[in-house]
Amino acid sequence: MGITNPNKLSPASAIDSMRSLYLDLLKSCLTDQLYVHPCPVPIKPRNLWKRMIVGMLAARDMSVVRFESVDEQLRREGRDWPSHAHTMIGNTRLDHLQFCIQDVIERGIPGDLIEAGVWRGGASIFMRAVLKAYDITDRYVWVADSFAGLPPPNPTKYPSDAGDPHHTIRELCVPIEIVMSNFDRYNLLDDQVLFLKGWFRDTLSSDLIGTLAVVRLDGDMYESTMDALVGLYPKLSPGGYLIVDDYGAVPACRQAVEDYRRAHGIVDHIQTIDWTGVYWTRS
Asked: What is the pLDDT of residue 44?
C-alpha cells in the first residue's frame, strides 16, 4: 500500500509556488535586501574649502562618503537611494507591478511592457522576469531612458520644472552598458528586451513601439512625464495599466499627469499604490 502525502501540491499549484519563490527572491535581490550591510552616503560639507576638495574629487569620478546602516523599513517602502540595489522603488511597487503584469496575461490584454526612466534597470528586469516565470514569449520589455540622466529644465516651455535639480544628480546617470550588464546578471538579457536610448521626446513616439499592456513612468520631471504620456498613452490597450512612480513625491510630475488627463478627457480613477506611486486602468 502506497503512502500518500496530504501536503503534496498539485502540478499547477507546484508551478505557482515556484513562480512565487523565484519572483519574491528576485525582489529581495533587486532591492538589495538579502544582505544587511552599511550603505555609503555622499558627504556634502558646508565649509567652502571642503566643498572645493569634494568638487575636485568628483571631477576625477571620486566621492567622499560616510557609511550608514540601512533602514530596512525605508528600503521596503522605496524611500531611500540604495548604493548597491538595482531599483529604489521598494516592495509595494514591485508587488503591484507583478500584479499588473500577471493580470494582463490572465485577461489576455494585448501588448508589450515598457518602463520610461529605468535608473539601474531593476523594475524593467523584474518585468522581464515575470514574463519568464509565465513562459511568455510573444511580449517584449521596452527599456527607455536617456542613460545620461535627466534633461536640464526648460522653464519657458515647462514652468513647473523651473529650478528642477535632477539633471545635476550624478547618481541618476547610469550608462546603457551598466543597465544591460545588470540584466545579464539575472540571465534576463535576451531578444525580448529592447532598449530605447535618448530623450523621451525623441524616442517614445517611435513607430517601433506597438501596442502596450503595461506602461510604467518614472521620469520625475514635468517634461519627462508629459513626453512619456504623449508618446505612450495612445498605444496603451484598453484594460491595460498606466503606472506613475513619482506622482506623490514630485509635484511637477503630478501636474503633468493632471494636465494630460484633463486635455484628453481621461476620467479613469487614479488609484494609490503607496506613498508616491499611483496607477489607473485604461477604460
From this structure: 76
81: left (phi over 0), alpha (psi -120 to 50) or beta: beta
Taking the CA atoms of residue 22, residue 24, residue 30 and residue 32 in that order, the dihedral angle to the nearest 10 degrees is -120
Which residue in 218, 209, 213 sits closest to 281, CA to CA?
Answer: 213
Tell whether the model's pLDDT for residue 117 goes beyond 90.
yes
- In the chain, residues under CATH classification 3.40.50.150 are 90-281
**Sorting pLDDT into bands at 50, 70 and 90, what band is 4?**
low
The dotted CATH code for 90-281 is 3.40.50.150
Asked if the model's pLDDT at residue 195 lies above 80, the reply is yes
Q: What are phi and psi of 56, to 5 degrees?
A: -65, -40
CA distance 276 to 283: 23
Please name the residue ranges forming H helices in the chain.
Answer: 11-30, 48-59, 72-77, 90-107, 122-133, 176-185, 200-203, 222-232, 251-263
Strand 65-68 to 193-197 pairing: unpaired
52 or 177, which is more confident: 177
Look-up of cell digits 514635468 = 222
> Is residue 7's pLDDT more than 70?
no
Label residues 143-156 b or e (16+ Cβ within 10 Å = b).
Answer: bbbbbebbbebeee
CA dist list (Å): 271 to 23, 68, 128, 261: 24, 34, 24, 14
